[in-house]
Amino acid sequence: MELIDTHAHLTYPELSAQLPLVMADARAAGVARIITIGSDAVDSQAALALATTHPMLACTAGIHPHEAAKVADGDFKRIRELAADPHVVAVGEIGLDYHYDFADRETQHWVLVRQLDIARSSGKPIVVHCREAFPDCVSLLEQNGFRNRKVVFHCFTGTAEEAATLAAHGWRISFTGIVTFKNSTELQAIARDYPADQLMLETDAPYLSPIPVRSVRPNVPAHVAHTAAFLAELRGVPLEELAAQTTANARAFFDLKS
Fold it and tell me: How many C-beta atoms lie closer than 10 Å to residue 197's C-beta?
């Protein structure tokens, strides 16, 4: 069995400080690849440094909406340069967050659109963070030519109607440990029926540890195996089939050669 954790933050101190152990535990759990995610220009550079050092890793480069208020023009230049590196397999995580509103919405929109231009010109997929901003996020993606392009909404926790919109656009959903939580009944219904060829798995480590390790901190990429097992049972398919499908989806989406 082979799994891919498509979204982890290995630059975070609680994971980077024990990275050899984190990767060894992931391999023991069947995780073949981990995508470590950039959240601003500096963090994206650090993610690339990890990916160039460890063959198990690939990375993304992007500016998270939480960081939008701090961005400078030089940051976009750096993200564009990073996106050209073959170890950088997507632009992200980018998007909109209206829950915390750490940056005003006009600024968030501007930062997102600038990065959509980088993704378009680089030909790289995008990893989207969208919280309480679904209509605006979808609208900006459509306006900037991303319908039927490679888009994944990471850590999806939206409604069935929103999931249907994503599926209709040919976009992917990535599920975290949240789907295993007992009160996630609507999300579980979505995960049960979402198109198999658009389904991916992630941990969002160091956050969102799944059941049965929900109390474990930090979350680690090895725990994606618990989410995979839960989804396989939920969808009524063998774990090996679910693992093979989600791994194939991730390899195709991020253009992973190994």
Answer: 12
Contacts of 79 (CB under 8 A, 6+ apart): 41, 44, 61, 62, 63, 91, 115, 118
Q: Residue 179 belongs to a domain with what CATH number?
A: 3.20.20.140
- The total number of structural domains in the chain stands at 1
- Phi (first) and psi of residue 47, to 5 degrees: -65, -40
- For residue 39, how many other CB atoms are within 10 A of its CB? 24
The encoded tokens of residue 167 equal: 């599926």
Q: What is the pLDDT of residues 45-93, one digit of tens each?
A: 999 999 999 999 999 999 999 999 999 989 999 999 999 999 999 999 9
Please write the tens of the pLDDT for every residue from 146-198: 998 999 999 999 999 999 999 999 999 999 999 999 999 999 999 999 999 99
Contact (CB, 8 A) for 6 and 152? yes
How far is the C-alpha of 127 from the C-alpha of 63, rounded, in Å? 11
Four-CA torsion 20, 62, 49, 3, nearest 10 degrees:
40
Domain that holds residue 199: 3-254
CB contact at 8 A, 31 and 4: yes
Beta pairing, strands 88-97 & 57-61: parallel
The tokens for 94 are 């980018």
Residues 6+ positions from 116 with CB-CB distance below 8 Å? 94, 126, 140, 141, 144, 145, 146
Cβ count near 166 (within 10 Å): 24
Structure tokens at 141: 């993606």
Q: Is residue 141 predicted with pLDDT exceeding 90?
A: yes
